[in-house]
Amino acid sequence: MNSNLLLRIASAIILLTHSVFGMFNNGINDFGNLFLNQIGFAPYGIFLAWIIKLSHIVAAILLLANKYIKLAGFITIFVLIMGIILVHFKEGWFVVGGGRNGVEYNFLLIIVLLAIMYPNGLKWNSK
Question: Could you list the residue ranges that cross the membrane (predicted)?
Answer without folding.
Answer: 5-24, 44-64, 71-89, 105-122
